[in-house]
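Weekly structure sync, notes
Attendees: PL (lead), two postdocs, one rotation student
Agenda item 3: pending single-chain targets
PL asked that the sequence for the first pending target be pasted directly into the notes so everyone works from the same version. It is reproduced below exactly as submitted, 347 residues in total.
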Amino acid sequence: MTDMQPDQFPSNSEQATISGRKYPVAFLRGNSLSGLIFKRLLLGAVLLWAISVIIFAGTQILPGDVATAMLGQQATPQAVENIRKELGLERPAIQRYAEWFGNAVRGDLGRSYSNRQDIAISIAPRLSNTLYLAAIAALFAIPIALLLGIISVLYAGTAIDRGIAVATLSTISLPEFFVAYILIAYFAISHGLLPSSAIVNSSMSAWQRLIAIALPCMTLVIAVTGHMVRMTRASLLAVMSSPYIETAQLKGLPRWRILLRHALPNALSPVINVIALNLAYLVVGVVVVEVIFVYPGMGQYMVDHVSKRDVPVVQACGLIFAAVYIGLNIIADVIVILTNPRLRHSG
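Predicted structure, written out during the meeting:
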């Protein structure tokens, strides 16, 4: 950068020169909208790298030997050694990590130990199924949560508010597997209304797929709605005590109009964050639900290969889960920045 005194630093409208290129000073300071977004992306990339180290280290310290597990206890030492060389397990861990992470960044997730198939090709339909289930669950959970949160504030202190509070606390307290088995017992076994297993394939129509995933979708909706309802209610109540809301009340505006037109837009930031966290959970935390309903998603795929000690598949699933979780949180941060005038116009 060209030499200059601190008090001579160019204003935001001016530009600084670095290695022959010109950059807005506001971007370099990180106070502009683009700077804030860039910092979120950079932090997400660093976090993903750190998680990749933990995932790789975790799979390396597991008890037992992968080659022995693949060949069985009766395998000869020479056969085990040959498998280790074939899989590259004799190389230093740092070298194997660098190769694995470098390939993963380029989209190459390696090959499965159990069937030697390309993991990226095998995992694509599973990831698609998991995202589909999460999207359908979110399509129901988000509107229900916002509606219940608004109703709870609209009738704050009444029996309706207390009923919603009890219902949300109950759903938050119940583990997913318990909810899943209750739904199976009622809808599948007792009344035969819905299938107990969510087996889907490409030949199914859209309606058949929706019927097949109805129970796991209901389980996920029940699991995440309570958190979003409570955050929506808390955020709206905090905004409703603001001076400008009191001014609107003094003008005689209806409570529902104040709530929807004045309070809700200003309470969105924390609500967006909790929605993003729950969306991430719908993708990352569905392992138990997928196993219970035999749903062919990422969670079921990972559990199947954990039992086979298929390390590359477990690593790939863990990295994808982490990337989705971080990505959704970055999107939430960007939306919060875009919807918050103080952040959008900072600097």
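Discussion points:
- Strands lie at 15-18, 21-24.
- Residues 119-344 form a domain with the MetI-like fold fold (CATH 1.10.3720.10).
Action: rotation student to compare against the earlier draft before next sync.
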